[in-house]
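step=encode ok
step=design start
structure_in=
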């Protein structure tokens, strides 16, 4: 087993969305599965997030943040056509 397949063998697979929460004063990268994978990576556990993400201006920062957190991004699949990265907009109460 090579080093790359050994790392994948020891990874936790996390399936789900990557999205931005849009608040009136900030955009926060998240989504429950993304947050689980980010925290697993922070604890030093391998985490491979499997997700389909959109191609828009938010994609590059999302990938940069993922790399910064030490997350494996090989499981992020991109829409072939332009589609925005998912987002949840918080409305004022």
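sequence_out=
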């Amino acid at each position: 087993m090579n080093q790359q397949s050994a790392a994948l063998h020891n990874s936790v697979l996390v399936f789900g969305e990557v999205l931005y929460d849009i608040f009136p004063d900030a955009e926060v990268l998240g989504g429950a599965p993304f947050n689980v994978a980010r925290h697993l990576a922070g604890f030093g556990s391998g985490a491979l997030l499997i997700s389909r993400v959109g191609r828009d201006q938010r994609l590059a920062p999302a990938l940069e943040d993922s790399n910064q957190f030490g997350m494996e991004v090989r499981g992020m699949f991109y829409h072939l056509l332009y589609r925005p990265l998912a987002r949840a907009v918080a409305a004022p109460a």
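step=design ok
step=annotate ok -> The helical segments are 3-9, 32-42, 59-68.
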